[in-house]
Design goal:
Blueprint (H helix, E strand, L loop, with lengths): L1 E4 L2 E4 L10 E4 L5 E5 L15 H12 L2 E5 L12 H5 L2 H20 L5 E7 L10 E4 L18 H12 L5 E3 L32 E7 L7 H16 L8 E5 L26 H17 L5 E5 L5 E5 L1 H9 L4 E8 L5 H15 L4 H15 L3 H12 L10 H15 L4 H8 L5 H8 L5 H15 L3 H11 L6 H6 L1 H11 L4 H36 L8 E5 L8 E5 L6 H14 L10
Parallel strand pairs: 4-5, 4-6, 6-9, 7-8, 11-13
Antiparallel strand pairs: 1-2, 3-5, 7-9, 10-13, 11-12, 14-15
Helix pairs in contact: 1-5, 4-5, 6-7, 8-9, 9-11, 10-11, 15-18, 17-18, 18-19
Length: about 600
């Protein structure tokens, strides 16, 4: 059941009425339950009134609509008096307006509404019968007690019989009582009186049910009565079809759980999706001209509201058209397993337009988190449907990893320009996945993309070579790119006929020069240590230091000769010398 506090929805499943709340519950049939006075005083300051709990239990069992006031005391405001409620805009919008919308949704699905208004007798009033039925009865041709029927006698007789079959004793409310609901201002007359123009609909059947107070004075008793009433009323339920019209405002898209099966990017302001925007504009125009050709596919959640399984872009287009009702195929979350829903959603979403690489990564991330699947299992289960492998070959787990890796950049809120350009097909996914995504620091990644990848558009082998040249410097990548020498090389290369080739050549010269400088500096330091520790005539055979291969300048290999009887002295001299001279420094010591 979906429960709302005034105009804001609060997701909850409950049979117990929350205090200070007007509950509004979505249904899937023609029955609408209304409670005008469901306020239950806290701390037992007055006799208990659990009519609201009874209604909520019935709504849960019948899967029907309900509007239940547990907020306003009858002494402060009688919500069964329509004119009084209409004079208070806030109360009207939170109580009467949902009744109107639910009625319209029922009618919009081709069903005849059956409105049941539930109320309690005062504690001091005694009655042998358990439930009194009021249908606007009075005395014909009487101005004092006019007859204003709200339901046919034949239907009323059938309802009474069904209720009494559940061992609940009933009676028709006496015409001289307050339980008939014939007064023009009474909620039971809401759809029968022309003075309420926005509500007038004589086709609506309504019935006032008044419960003896001892039946609703305890929560457990009230809920037991609800369990007895529900099967009696089930035979009067007309269920909505699988495809039905629903209020678009009852579709939730605000949290991760609601977006579980939505893999399209949701128009995040950090990312530009030109293709998506143009598609939705075209789709909105098409729906405006031709109507919705394919209904949305929704899941009715356990709280009674809806989340989208398929048709998120259609939903966005309909929102732009400000259409209050939308045609949708509605499933229960219990109808299929999450794995089935992922397969249904994927098949639907790839039927008319393929997912872009970020959306594929989004799908894989959601499927992995929900179903607990590894990359190998994701590849086996969804690889073929996603169409991301080479023809005739199975999708590998490493391919799945690449898509998830790029999407994780988006999930962390990093590198929006890279994500946008992948979405808009301005950047090859292979470059983003294999060369940019592995760069852990976002500053380094963004600098490489902005200064090298985007302006030069290198191939993967070219970018690999450029990256190797830039990473030879001891600075961070983004710091290296920002140096004047690299910036001059970039400017010069962009002005040349072959920009990428020129940039590789210029950075190669810089690398060679830098390597030569570093080597000369290291050689000078080694010669000094050799003289101090082994004498003026010592050679490289006595002492030498060389950079370790493939260590990027972070490792050195030290070789030296030891003479018998001089081991301790030689080691002490070398320790002091190596401590004084920083062999990894790239600038001469001051």
């Amino acid at each position: 059941m979906a429960v709302f506090h005034n105009s804001a929805p609060v997701v909850a499943i409950m049979k117990t009425a929350s205090p200070q709340t007007i509950h509004r519950i979505l249904g899937s049939n023609n029955i609408l339950l209304i409670v005008a006075d469901g306020y239950n005083a806290p701390n037992n300051t007055q006799p208990g009134n659990f009519i609201a709990s009874l209604a909520l239990s019935m709504a849960e069992k019948l899967a029907c609509y309900a509007v239940v006031n547990a907020k306003y005391k009858r002494e402060i405001m009688d919500l069964s008096h329509v004119t009084t409620v209409q004079e208070r805009p806030k109360v009207r919008d939170s109580f009467l307006l949902p009744i109107k919308k639910f009625k319209e949704e029922i009618v919009g699905n081709g069903l005849l509404p059956l409105v049941l208004i539930l109320q309690a007798m005062p504690p001091k009033e005694h009655c042998e019968d358990m439930i009194l039925f009021g249908y606007g009865q009075g005395q014909r041709a009487s101005s004092a007690a006019p007859h204003r029927p709200t339901i046919s006698p034949s239907l009323l007789a059938k309802i009474r019989m069904a209720v009494e079959d559940q061992h609940l004793r009933t009676a028709i409310a006496p015409t001289n009582s307050a339980y008939c609901g014939r007064e023009q201002q009474h909620l039971n007359q809401l759809f029968r009186q022309k003075q309420y123009q926005d509500f007038y609909d004589p086709e609506v059947r309504s019935l006032l049910l008044t419960f003896r107070h001892d039946l609703i004075s305890q929560r457990q008793t009230a809920e037991s009565i609800a369990l007895m009433l529900a099967p009696a009323l089930e035979q009067f339920c007309q269920s909505m079809s699988l495809v039905r019209n629903i209020d678009i405002n009852n579709i939730d898209t605000t949290n991760d759980e609601d977006l579980q099966y939505i893999f399209r990017l949701q128009g995040d302001s950090r990312y530009s999706d030109v293709l998506r925007e143009s598609y939705i504009e075209e789709l909105a125009s098409s729906i405006d001209r031709n109507g919705l050709l394919h209904p949305l596919v929704l899941l009715k959640k356990n709280d009674g509201r809806y989340k989208i399984l398929c048709g998120f872009r259609r939903f966005q287009a309909l929102k732009r058209l400000h259409q209050p009702l939308v045609e949708a195929k509605v499933y229960q979350e219990s109808d299929f397993s999450p794995e089935d829903f992922f397969n249904i959603s994927l098949a639907e979403n790839t039927r008319r337009r393929n997912l872009n690489p970020i959306e594929i990564g989004n799908f894989l991330e959601s499927a992995s988190n929900t179903l607990g699947l590894s990359n190998v299992e994701l590849a086996e289960q969804f690889g073929d449907t996603l169409g991301i492998g080479k023809p005739g070959q199975k999708v590998s787990h490493s391919t799945i990893h690449k898509y998830r890796k790029v999407n994780q950049i988006r999930l962390r809120g990093e590198s929006p320009e890279i994500i946008s350009d992948v979405v808009n097909e301005k950047l090859q996914f292979s470059i983003a996945a294999e060369l940019l995504a592995p760069i852990k620091n976002s500053e380094d990644r963004d600098a490489l993309y902005a200064h090298i990848v985007k302006p030069f558009m290198p191939t993967r082998p070219q970018l690999t070579k450029l990256l190797n040249l830039l990473e030879q410097d001891s600075l961070r990548l983004h710091e290296t790119i920002a140096t004047p020498q690299v910036q001059r090389s970039i400017a010069k290369a962009l002005a040349s006929p072959q920009p990428v080739t020129t940039l590789i050549r210029l950075l190669g010269k810089k690398s060679d020069a830098t390597t030569g400088e570093h080597k000369a500096l290291l050689d000078a330091k080694v010669r000094g240590i050799r003289r101090r520790c082994f004498g003026e005539n010592a050679s490289k055979r006595d002492f030498n230091i060389t950079p370790a291969a493939r260590a990027g300048g972070d490792e050195l290999i030290v070789q030296f000769r030891l003479k018998k009887g001089e081991t301790q002295r030689t080691l002490e001299l070398l320790a002091n010398a190596l401590t004084q001279d920083d062999l990894f420094a790239e600038e001469p010591s001051a």
